[in-house]
Design a protein that fits this description.
Layout lengths: L1 E8 L5 H9 L4 E11 L4 H4 L3 E7 L2 E9 L5 E9 L15 H4 L7 E17 L2 E14 L2 E14 L2 H15 L2 E2 L4 H17 L8 H8 L17 H24 L8 H24 L6 H36 L18 H6 L1 H16 L11 H20 L7 H21 L5 H30 L3 H27 L14
Antiparallel strand pairs: 1-5, 1-8, 1-9, 2-3, 2-6, 3-4, 4-5, 6-7, 7-8
């Protein structure tokens, strides 16, 4: 059975209103107590497989979930059981055999969940959906992580109906789109419990401390993340979906999923990785721009607005967390300038949690899941057209790289964006054999980025220095730093001449 569902974190401020609205449609409730299993080395979690025994009312059910065809879909296999005992022989000869039976001798209980689920069955646009409001916790070795989430599952019909109902509840109750399953959070909780046990730490962690410990890293795409398919529709949707997943997951962390309140440096990490995901997504859409359907093009246009807003917030983090400490260490007269609240256009945390942005993320997800995303009707030899676009991008970059020092600041910044777009698209198109070009592109991106960072700081200190002496010191130090960094960038750009993108067709 293919399971497809949307999941939303319910912020504390939204819970009274959501509960009232849910009571108006509730058709029942059920207690769900589950035990999740894996090996001590997490072999199942590493392959995105979840195995559980769950008591649903009075019936035990053994369930395995396997990766599905898209971000929201999972292959689910269920077997009723007389009690809480695993029977892996049930999977012999099924799609789950290879995923489970090699580990049969080492699978053990890792964590548990206790959930009170409110249920509602909805009919919408000819489709049937189940609305589930889950309240409870995940537990492992004495550590607990609260659960408060709303799920919208498609029972039968069209996926678009699931998104329409999801949009309705998200917008009305300021929900946060969440891609982490209970099994993913439970696996992280069990790993945290293992680390504490290894260090023989016995002090109790409060739920907010547990949540903070589980969300202390920004989400990055696993490596490698190239897409191994010649089908252009499939290639586009997979690569764009991976990019959007990086955006959604970091946006949820930035917005305070699980009630976390990350410190400024961690907020900056979430923001930076979310913008990397946005850049990846925009790069992928740029590559396929001539063939995007109307919904994909519109989604991309709307995201560009938020990309700019988050960019301003990222500039703030850059100056305050990276550049200013360097200036003070170099002897700049203090104190460090502080940006007045009146100058802050948008707080990144509030912006990430804003219902308009969360709704936009859900719309982008719908466009990719419901597809098709491309209109290739009548296009002759589209594979070669993609290669031609990649080659044209690369030639354009090489031409500008040779005279980097003569380019204006704006064109230098634009060159870096072109390098980013090429690099991100090649990461989806190519494998490990292209590491030489990937490395050079990463170096060029980083070194030109160091130059543009100085430009941001020069502009900022010209407006916000606390004294003429501070402004003069910052201008002198930053100008010298720019010259040094520009020379380093030029040397890296010169190395591009030794590489060319390998033909995609030749690798398939």
């Amino acid at each position: 059975m293919l399971e497809q569902e949307l999941k939303f974190f319910v912020p504390e401020s939204a819970r009274p209103g959501l509960l009232t609205a849910f009571e108006a449609v509730r058709t029942g409730s059920i207690t769900l107590n589950a035990i999740y299993f894996d090996t001590p080395e997490r072999e199942l979690a590493r392959t995105d497989v979840a195995l559980r025994l769950r008591k649903e009312g009075g019936q035990w059910m053994q369930t395995v979930k396997l990766p599905g065809p898209d971000t929201l879909s999972r292959i689910e296999i269920n077997h009723p059981r007389p009690g809480p005992e695993l029977d892996l022989e049930l999977y012999r000869g099924t799609a789950a055999e290879a995923a489970l039976l090699p580990y049969a001798g080492r699978i053990q209980a890792r964590y548990q969940t206790e959930i009170l689920r409110g249920l509602a069955v909805l009919q919408h646009a000819g489709s049937e959906l189940e609305l589930a409001y889950d309240v409870g916790h995940i537990e492992s070795q004495g550590l607990r992580l609260p659960v408060n989430e709303l799920e919208v599952e498609l029972i039968r019909g069209d996926s678009a109906a699931m998104f329409e109902i999801g949009q309705r509840w998200l917008y009305k109750h300021n929900l946060i789109l969440e891609l982490r399953s209970k099994s993913e959070r439970g696996d992280a909780l069990a790993s945290l419990a293992d680390r504490r046990l290894a260090r023989t730490l016995t002090d109790t962690l409060q739920p907010e401390q547990v949540a903070a410990a589980l969300t202390r890293k920004a989400y990055q795409l696993p490596k490698p993340h190239f897409v191994d398919t010649r089908d252009l529709e499939q290639f586009y949707r997979r690569s764009a979906s991976m990019s959007l997943e990086q955006v959604i997951r970091n946006a949820a962390l930035l917005a305070g999923v699980d009630g976390i309140r990350p410190a400024a440096p961690l907020q900056a990490d979430y923001l930076a990785m979310m913008r990397v995901g946005l850049r990846r997504l925009r790069s992928c859409r740029k590559l396929f721009n001539p063939w995007l359907n109307a919904s994909e093009g519109y989604a991309n246009t709307r995201l560009a607005h938020y990309f700019g807003l988050f960019g301003k917030a990222r500039d703030q983090d850059l100056v305050q967390l990276e550049i200013t400490p360097l200036l003070l260490q170099a002897g700049m007269p203090g104190p460090a300038p502080q940006l007045e609240p009146a100058h802050v256009e948008h707080d990144p945390v509030e912006l990430a949690a804003a219902v308009e942005f969360q709704s936009l993320l859900l719309s982008n997800l719908q466009s990719l899941v419901c597809g098709p995303a491309l209109d290739l009707h009548g296009v002759q030899d589209p594979d070669h057209l993609i290669e031609a676009r990649i080659t044209r991008w690369f030639n354009n970059i090489q031409l500008r790289s040779q005279r980097f020092a003569q380019l204006s600041q704006e064109k230098q910044h634009r060159l870096r964006n072109r390098i980013k777009s090429l690099r991100y698209c090649l990461e989806f198109l190519q494998g490990a054999d292209d590491e030489g070009l990937h490395k050079v592109l990463r170096e060029c991106q980083a070194l030109i980025g160091a130059v543009t960072d100085v430009d941001v700081a020069l502009h900022w200190y010209a407006r916000h220095a606390v004294s003429p002496e501070q402004a003069q010191f910052a201008r002198r130090w930053l100008t010298q730093a720019r010259e040094t960094r520009a020379a380093q960038a030029q040397r890296a750009l010169n190395a591009l001449g030794q590489h060319r993108p390998q033909p995609w067709l030749a690798r398939h």
